[in-house]
Amino acid sequence: MKKMICIICPNGCELEADDEEHVTGNLCPRGRTFALQELKDPRRSVSTTCRTVFPDIPVVPVRTEQEIPKHLMKDTVRAISEIVIDRHMRIGETVAADILNTGVNVVLCTDRLKEVDHD
Ligand code: SF4
After folding, report:
1. Cα(16)–Cα(38) distance, rounded to whole angstroms?
2. Does residue 60 have its Cβ closer than 6 Å to ligand 1?
3. What domains are defined for the chain?
4. Per-residue pLDDT averaged across 18-39, rounded?
5. What confidence tens digit (pLDDT) does each residue in 80-110 have?
């Protein structure tokens, strides 16, 4: 039996789940889906910042477009920390494609780079 907190909504139900797919503590069906996913293949979105070459906007927010395997979160943040954006970009554009071979892109979360000065 594994204990976990459901992170799907602010209720934060305390769940218990086992390998026979018995789930308790969930107030709604989404909690059961979350618990079974946590047992088999826990995943999370990653939101962090990325450096740029632009002095006026030295860092910008980025995030993974979909959830990635939870065990790759630290490595993903580390990989993103090595990226330096050196061109104008729009919100939603890909900063890093297929990060760590997950099939998930990292995208820009701001429009501040679309017309930033180079110097
Ligand atoms: S089980 Fe349902 S109600 Fe409870 S936290 Fe998860 S999504 Fe929210």
Report:
1. 11
2. no
3. 2-40 (no CATH), 47-108 (3.10.530.10)
4. 96
5. 999 999 999 999 999 999 999 999 999 999 9
Whole-Å CA distances, 66 to 10, 52, 59, 99, 107? 20, 23, 22, 11, 10
- Tell me, using a 6 A CB cutoff, whether residue 11 lines ligand 1: yes
Residue type, 9: C
**Ligand 1: which atom is nearest the Cα of residue 12?**
5
Position 119 pLDDT exceeds 90: no
Ligand 1 centroid to Cα of residue 28, in Å, is 6
pLDDT at 37: 94
Whole-prediction pTM value?
Answer: 0.85
Q: How far is the CA of 89 from the centre of ligand 1 (A)?
A: 37
